[in-house]
Amino acid sequence: MSGERTCWVCGGGTLVLRKPANYPGVLDSRAFAITDSNYGVTGAIYQCPECGFLQCPELPEVTGFYEQLEDEAYEAGRSPRSLQSRKILEQVTNDQRAGRLLDVGAGSGMLVEQALQMGYRAEGIEPSRWLQSQAVERGLPVHLGILPSPHCRGPYDVVTLIDVIEHVLRPLELLRAIRSVLAPGGVLAVVTPDVRSLAARLLGWRWWHFRVAHVGYFDKSTLELAAGRAGFALAAFRRPGWYFSGDYLWERAWKLAGLRRRPAPRVLRRITVPLNPRDSLLAILRPANAPE
To answer: Minimal CA–CA distance to 286: which of 240, 236, 239?
Structure first.
């Protein structure tokens, strides 16, 4: 157990249990797969009565699970995921069009690859040995590890943190580590699920982002609060969309409906579907003049 019973965002105490843990057996790296579809299976979720942040303080240190993670299904979806990365970068270029870029939690380097094609001097860092090796095999500059790291000294003009902050037990430490390598005029782009979105409220604990791997659940107010305490100022909030293969959506639809999955028609493998349920946040952050 992490042993922390103060809020990871505001530091408040007396967290309130909102959802008991319901994961079966002993955790291993498979529960932390990027493509995990066990929706509603989580650690014990507590809420801070002061800021409202939802967090899982009883889970063990999760870094080791990510170091051992292998996810072949993630690599199989490289084409639509790369398109998704490019679309996110196109939104970031409105705020920072060139320079050095660091992708934190880079996976197998899909965003790094797109950033290089767009003219950034891009690199990434990733804890999974398997995912990092996939990037290296493609000739992509992705380092093994987590921040802070001797491989990522900065200053960077852009740092991207895409669907990562919800996976870490100490989000403020991560944000502060990013701020230490970000150029004074640089931009940090954070993407994370929005626990106050309409989809989350309609689906309740069956929402697809309630998963063991997600240990912190942000909304606009708690993400802005965390950013401010880490020395950032909010420049903008946006709602990013996603891109999925047709067979991926077919499988997830059956899973969400609680029905036995039927094989997807082969034609769906060749189809990429744009989808925006508006249940994710893209925050554009810049270093504040007077960090806390």
So the answer is: 236
Could you give the residue ranges of the DSSP H alpha helices within 68-219? 72-76, 78-92, 110-117, 129-137, 171-181, 198-203
Closest CA to 175 of 114, 241, 110, 227: 227
Predicted TM-score (pTM) of the model is 0.91
Which of helix, strand or coil describes residue 253? Answer: helix
For the chain, give every domain's residue range: 16-241+276-287
Whose tokens are 């047709």? That residue is 246
Please state whether 129 falls in left (phi above 0), alpha (psi between -120 and 50) or beta: alpha
Tens of pLDDT, residue by residue, the chain (292 residues): 444 589 999 999 899 999 999 998 889 999 999 999 899 999 999 999 999 999 999 999 999 999 999 999 899 889 999 999 999 999 987 766 789 999 999 999 999 999 999 999 999 999 999 999 999 999 999 999 999 999 999 899 999 999 999 999 999 999 999 999 999 999 999 999 999 999 999 999 999 999 999 999 999 999 999 999 999 999 999 999 888 877 777 677 766 666 666 776 777 677 788 889 999 999 999 999 733 4
Superfamily for domain range 16-241+276-287:
Vaccinia Virus protein VP39 (3.40.50.150)
R_g (Cα) of the chain, nearest Å: 18
Q: What tokens does 135 get?
A: 């990037």
